[in-house]
Every structure is written in C-alpha cells, then in structure tokens.
Amino acid sequence: MKRIVLITGATSGIGKASAKIFAKNGYDLIITGRREKRLLDQKKKLESKYGVKVLPLNFDVRKRKEVKRCLESIPTKWKNIDLLLNNAGLAKGFSSIDQGNIDDWETMINTNVLGLLYVSKIVSKIMIKNKKGHIINICSTAGHEVYPNGNVYCASKHAVDAITKSMRLDFYKHGLRVSQVSPGHVEQTEFAMVRFGGDEKKASIYDDFVPLSSKDVAKTVYFIASQPSHVNIQDVLMMGTQQANSIFIDRRGRTKN
Cβ(140)–Cβ(157) under 8 Å? Predict the structure, then answer.
C-alpha cells in the first residue's frame, strides 16, 4: 500500500517542492491550495512523471467551513494519511506596530495559526483513528526570535512553535509523531513578493547573498518523514551559510554553491 501525504499550500514554494520530492519517492499526494488551475496542472505533471496518484483539494485554509467540507469529504481510500505537512503560510507587510495594516495582521494570523489548526484538527482525528501518522509544521526562524518590523508575523510563527510542542504532548500517546522545520530566508518561493505586496524592487531581498532554496527545505522535510517510526526529529532550525540569524546576514555578494 502506498503511503499518503497531505500538503497544504502546495501550489508554490516549499509546498510545491515538497510535493515533488514525496512523489519522486512513491507517495500518493493530497495537495491543497487556493489556486485551482495550479493544483490541476500539478496533479497532471506529478502523476505523469512519477506514476503516483494525486488528489487536489481547492480551498483556503483561513475558511473553516471550506476546510471542514473538503477534508471531511475525502474518499475513504484517501483517508489512510501517513503524513500531514502544514505548509500554508505567509507574511504580509513589513512595518512597526503603529504603522501596521490590521487587514494584513488578520490575514497572517488566520492563515499561519488558525488555518494550521483547522486542518490539523480534522487530519489528526483521522490519524488517531488509524493509530499512525506524522505531522510536520513549517515554522520559521521567526518562530524562535523576533526582528524589527516582523512583529505579527513573528508572533504567528511563535504560535506555530507553541502549537507544535503542544501537539506533541497531545498526540504521543496515540503513536503520532509531531515535528517542525524552521527555515530562515528561502528563495524560489512567493514569500517576499507577498510580504511586499507585489513590489518587485522591495522583494529583491536575495540579490546579495545566497539563502536556502525551497528544495533545500523540502529535502529536510522528507528526511524527517523518512526516519524509522521510533525516531521523531522534533525541530530543525536551518539557514543559509551567509545567514547567522534573522538580522545578521553577510550581504557582500552571492557566494558560489
């Protein structure tokens, strides 16, 4: 029986890269996202290239009723979920609290915190019933430290860190593993463009150093997931070599890989 991974926010960045590496390694996939055409294109490509089955679910993790309707209607044969990758997340805005946009705050909290909870509540029930499962949350270095103008985004990722730890206490007696990956700057994603509202100039934050790539993070996610069932890698904090923490970055140029 093939293993099944459910990935939220699978249409770009870390989610898309993760879908590819899991498909390459023989997993069937449930991929979710807000952009239906991208989901359908992804399904076609992954099934054609890797010979796996892909179930696309088009919903917004911020909308509780959509999440409930889509996840609770998963066909029975797809409910043997081995892994949930809570990847959907974003940053919007980059300003001090007094200058912050409240709509941006709500978008981040509703996506990064409530969306993760909505999905996890339903999928964890399935896993507990199946007596197996692994939940991996995509956190951030922002979940371990704060930085200027990062306020609400950092708060949302600190919440992910706390939720991950709490999940572990809730689920270990059911035999479920709970892990997270906390990356620093990552390119090959839409993170910067979303944070800066589509302003390409402001979003060009990787021109003078080499950050992680979405593939780097996806490989780490897969490494965690591929450990023996008695091994739970609880957290991986990862950054590019030129990044020491959220603030200290060697911006003297992109080094050769």
Answer: yes
pLDDT of the residue at 210:
97
Strand partners, 187: 213
* Contacts (Cβ under 8 Å, ≥6 apart) of 55: 28, 29, 30, 31, 43, 74, 75, 78
Q: Are 113 and 160 in contact (CB under 8 A)?
A: yes
Judge residue 99's burial from the number of C-beta atoms within 10 Å of its C-beta, 0-12 exposed, 13-18 middle, 19 or more buried.
exposed
pLDDT the model gives residue 1: 67
Rounded distance between C-alpha atoms, residue 143 and residue 140, angstroms: 5
* Buried residues in 202-218 as b, exposed as e (16+ CB within 10 A): ebebbeebbbbbbbbbb
List the domains of the chain with CATH numbers: 4-238 (3.40.50.720)
pLDDT at 256: 60
Note if 27 is an active site residue: no
Question: At 249, is the secondary structure helix, strand, or coil?
Answer: strand
The H or E element that residue 237 is part of is strand 235-238
Structural tokens at position 127 = 């896993």
The chain-wide mean pLDDT, for the chain, equals: 96
**What is 31-92 written as a DSSP string?**
EEES-HHHHHHHHHHHHHHH---EEEEE--TT-HHHHHHHHHT--GGG----EEEE------
- CA atoms of 37 and 149, how far apart (whole Å): 34
Backbone angles phi, psi at 250, to 5 degrees: -80, 100
pLDDT single digits (tens) 45-104 = 999 999 999 999 999 999 999 999 999 999 999 999 999 999 999 999 999 999 999 999
216 pLDDT more than 60: yes
Catalytic annotation, pick one of 27, 118, 153, 206: 153
